[in-house]
Design goal:
The strands form three sheets. The chain has an eight-stranded parallel sheet with strand order 10-9-8-17-16-15-14-13. Strands 1-7-5-6-4-2-3 form a seven-stranded mixed sheet, with helices on one face. A two-stranded antiparallel sheet has the order 11-12. The chain starts with 21 loop residues before the first strand and ends with a helix. Helices cover 43% and strands 14% of the residues. The chain contains 22 helices and 17 strands. By secondary structure, it is α/β, with parallel strands linked by helices.
Length: 628
């Protein structure tokens, strides 16, 4: 659809994401004319060329005007359509001022970051109003200097480069300025090909390309490699199993693991391996930060370190290995980020952390204690980020209300206790069955409240997601995503870190039955959820996503999501001894899951590499085999 054929909205107030800290509407509109210039007011105009080109693209796409770029102030005033100016007098880093008046469009900022964010706001205005922009003034700057998103590419989904580039563009438009790819085994380490052989990993060349793409869009691509726990993908191989804390498996809070999970901190080979990984990985990134993970070392003290942990304390053993990793990171001139969950279990050790690390305080339920944990890190003087999540994983279609509560909780308490950053996490536990658009609402709200919690806590997120992520001016697409993510609210029983139907899909039937025996799900709840699925399927059939570049793909992904939720609901009934009258037949469940597995593979390959698909599909195939 060309810009001329777009039907632009004329809302009483602009829909902006994030909503700015301060906006004043002057009344009336400014009609953009064809024969104007984009003028870069700078002694070094090249430093704002990309920002000018982004504005030029948006003007062409949404207002159907072509304004050429000029690198000098020496032009007649009536020729200036848009001016981009660096103004060191503005006090807030990354802030900007945007004014639209009868003399044109003016963006000024103390740095190139701020100019870029002003252009992103202008792009959103053009998307709504076309060539007739409202007269206004915006003054804006962020709450958190670091606003990031972390995407899991190790359980089990590695996106294609096309998908990653598109995601970076989406995040840049939301004023996100850090991006991480959570990595266990999905970087192509040349000295360790056995580990990633079937994973379709990120290569060094691809990281260099992505790093450059992010940099131009004012996003820092932060390297990420888990380095202590979550090392199963390495330790299952005979070449690495001797480095495991518990080579033959362990007991965890999630049940018994047959496979090793954590590196043995007392084995010199563990640190040697970590050092080799860092030497190969880090040169591909320009960021001076590095997330080394080190979360959920749940088997530490169960195996080879048991005697030492009993004698000296598990927390002390953990901290000593963490400090060895810290020294490796320092050797590469980087600042270490690490997940703060284990050290928070041993609060007496927090003051022993170096003051130049960054602790990542994570938690994914709406009532996670960001308040108490933030206060503890603040008291110790250790810099920290708050790290909520999109609530997409183990959910199939999201957990909207939980996500919004979790994201806002992190922003408000992070601000209260002086967090230096906000990292919105998007995990892929148990097969990463949720398609990417399930996370859009979480990305959007997290970006909004990390930019300015006060002006965005009550934002109309469905309207904003529709407008700026799904290109649907009616608002119905955003509402559909919101409602799909709230199907779980039908159930009175609380499922931690998942939805009831997501739990049913990824969990063996025997364990589902155990859960239902101790905490039954009512047949009326399942029936009500099934009716909601049906309603949303009908809404999806009526939805028009023709302006979204991937609209057909998104519609297909949501259709798959709703069908998989339906299967999960039926699986709850199938597993329940009290619902024999409404239990679906074994033949129907097998047939439905067989079709879902085929569609899962098609949906997966539309955005992602083939590596990992076999493992993800195996979760669904196990479920199908249980119907007998």
């Amino acid at each position: 659809m060309t810009a001329k054929s777009r039907t632009h909205l004329r809302p009483t107030s602009p829909c902006l994401l994030p909503e700015p800290r301060w906006i004043e509407l002057a009344g009336g509109t400014v009609q953009l004319e064809a024969d104007k210039l984009i003028v870069i007011s700078s002694s070094r105009p090249a430093q704002l060329l990309f920002e000018a080109q982004e504005a030029q693209r948006a003007l062409s796409e949404y207002a159907d005007v072509t304004w050429h770029i000029y690198g000098s102030d020496c032009v007649p005033e009536d020729r200036v359509g848009l001016s981009l100016r660096l103004d060191p007098a503005q006090s807030h880093a990354q802030g900007y001022a945007l004014e639209i008046n009868t003399l044109g469009i003016h963006i000024s900022a103390p740095d190139a970051d701020g100019v870029f964010y002003g252009v992103m706001t202008l792009t959103q205005l053009l998307r709504q109003y076309g060539a007739a922009l409202p007269r206004l003034r915006i003054e804006d700057y962020p709450d958190f200097p670091a606003r990031g998103v972390m995407l899991d590419i190790s359980r089990d989904k590695v996106p294609t480069m096309k998908t990653l580039f598109e995601l970076v563009d989406l995040l840049a438009g939301l004023k996100i300025n850090q991006f991480q790819l959570y990595t266990e085994h999905t970087f192509a380490y040349q000295r360790h090909p056995l580990v990633w052989a079937n994973a379709s990993p990120m290569t060094g060349e691809e990281i260099l390309q992505l790093d450059a793409y992010c940099r131009s869009r004012h996003i820092e691509l932060v390297p990420n490699q888990n380095s202590f726990g979550h090392m199963t993908r390495w330790l299952i191989h005979d070449a690495y199993r001797p480095l495991a804390e518990a080579p033959n498996g362990c007991d965890t809070r999630w049940g018994h693991f047959d496979q090793p999970f954590t590196l043995c901190p007392g084995d010199p080979g563990s640190l040697k391996l970590i050092g080799e990984l860092y030497e190969e990985l880090l040169p591909h990134f320009t960021s001076r930060l590095f997330n080394v993970g080190c979360d959920e070392t749940v088997d530490l003290g169960q195996g080879r370190s048991k005697a030492e942990c009993e004698a000296r304390g598990t927390g002390v053993v953990y901290l000593e290995f963490l400090l060895k990793i810290y020294n490796e990171v320092r050797r590469h001139g980087r600042t270490m980020q690490f997940w703060g969950d284990i050290i928070m279990e041993h609060p007496e050790l927090v003051p022993q952390l170096p003051k130049d690390v960054i602790a990542l305080e994570w938690g994914y339920e709406h009532d996670h204690p960001f308040e108490a944990h933030g206060a503890r890190f603040a008291e110790s003087g250790v810099p920290f980020y708050v790290c909520p999540g999109t609530s997409s994983w183990n959910s199939i279609g999201g957990r909207t209300d939980n996500a919004l509560g979790n994201l806002l909780n992190a922003a408000q308490n992070g601000l209260k206790h002086g967090a230096i950053g906000y990292l919105n996490t998007d995990w892929g536990d148990n097969g990463h069955h949720q398609p990417l658009p399930v996370s859009y609402l979480g990305y959007a709200y997290g970006a909004a409240v990390s930019w300015c919690a006060a002006s965005n806590r009550d934002t109309d997120i469905t309207r904003a997601v529709s407008m700026h992520l799904l290109f649907d001016r009616s608002g119905r697409a955003g509402r559909l995503a919101y409602d799909i993510g709230n199907i779980y609210r039908v159930f009175e029983q609380r499922f931690f870190n998942c939805t009831p139907y997501g739990f049913a899909i990824v969990t063996p039937l025997a364990r589902v039955r155990e859960r239902l025996q101790s905490a039954p799900v009512a047949g009326a709840e399942i029936a009500r959820a099934l009716r909601e699925v049906g309603r949303l399927e009908r809404e999806l059939d009526k939805l028009e996503l023709s302006e979204a570049p991937d609209g057909k793909q998104i519609a297909r992904e949501w259709r798959f999501v709703l069908r998989l939720i339906r299967h999960g609901l039926n699986r709850l009934a199938y597993a329940s001894d009290s619902l024999t009258k409404t239990r679906p037949s074994t033949a129907d469940m097998r047939r439905d899951m067989r079709e879902l597995i085929a569609e899962h593979k098609r949906v997966w390959l539309s955005r992602n590499r083939p590596g990992g698909l076999r493992d993800s599909a195996a979760v669904l195939e196990r479920a199908m085999r249980e119907y007998r």
